[in-house]
Amino acid sequence: MKKTMLIGLLLLFVLSLGAVGYGASNDKIVVTPQLIGNENAKIEITWQPVPAHSLGDSNKAKVAYLMQKAKEWAEKHPDVKITPIQTTIAINDSMAKILVQAAEGRAPDVAAIDSYIFPNFAKYAQPIDDVMKEKKLNVKDWFPFAQKVMKPAGKTLGLWYTTDVRILFYRKDLVKNPPKTWPELFKLGKQLKDKGYDTLLYSAGRDENVTMNTLPYYWGLGGELVDESGKPVFGQGKNREAMISYLKFLKNTVDTGITPIRVLNYKSDPEMLGELAIGKAAMFVGVSNMANQLRSVIGDRFNEQWDVAPIPMAKRGVRVSASGGWVSTIFTKDEQKRKLAADFIISLYVDNAGMEGWCKAGGYLPPRKSVFEKAQFFNSDAFAQKFKKELQYSRVRPAAPVYPAISQEIQIAISNVLTGKASPEQAVDDAWRNVNSRK
């Protein structure tokens, strides 16, 4: 009899827990690439991250960080489930698909958008100023290039959560004073060449990375790729002259021997790592995350031998770089989902703890200035602080629909000029004709 009563009491206890919602909350929360939260939660938010920033990424540090943060958020919001949407690593295809979905009113509730094309999505994005205010975030804390994208007019429409910057890496045991101008670069280059070093490496193969790494030279000459309406202008007037000068500069680095012609084999910066590890390269232009990548290859020698400086420009007094990154934006018009989706992204990537943790795990730079100042991981890193300074002078690629075609033609022009297949003038005119023929 006593045994029967005990079983009955235990059953009543379990049922009572379910009645108050305990069993429907944290004990059923899961965090997987397919679901974050309780599968029975009443509120569903669809989330399309870029694959490299998702729970399905191969980077263990990033996934571990995301799983912990997603779990913490889900536990605080047991009535909400996040359904991640898997997408292709072909970024252009993915972005084009989301843009079509947004135009048709069926975009994911929240999605990651490549920063330079975010302006094309702005008219579909929902404002998040109220959530930012609640979380004590101010758009003025972001670097200037990001502010213009996030808040194109009177409302904040996106959250720029990761970035990078192009910069000159140099061997401080070989280069006492890093060159600030092209003439200084060529003068130093001759000295280093005579000692058996490759003065300057850079990626020159056919890839978007190549355009990004070399555009600062063009911008530094005052050149623009498109006008305010998005119409191509790089082949006209002063922009054409700037493009010719930019290609002549690259050609001269090869012709003088300070840059080996084999840079045409490099489509991305990491492809230079093997050569950099050998120790015969004095300088290279690359993206900021090359610091971590080169450090992982040569260990302590990186901090002992390498430093960074602004990219040399045609004339003294000019300073410009290029940045990329990702912006999360809310598409849902459901008021409850809008606030919850923004809260989720802010917790994951954007608030003080989120941005420090995410950028540390992924090797990214924070697009918020205060994170460089307050986060111990960044304020104690000498390279991070120099990257921060360069971000103040950074620009982003134009969001014009014609930009991908322009970028492709720039890559072809660089290849043809470096190999001697075309003069800089001919290469620019060919690129101009080809871009305009695609209209």
UniProtKB/TrEMBL annotation:
It comes from the Bacteria. Belongs to the bacterial solute-binding protein 1 family. It holds the Pfam family SBP_bac_8. One of its GO terms (biological process) is maltose transport. Keywords: Cell membrane, Lipoprotein, Membrane, Signal, Sugar transport, Transport. The keyword Signal applies. One of its GO terms (cellular component) is ATP-binding cassette (ABC) transporter complex, substrate-binding subunit-containing. It is found in: Cell membrane. The keyword Cell membrane applies. This is Maltodextrin-binding protein.
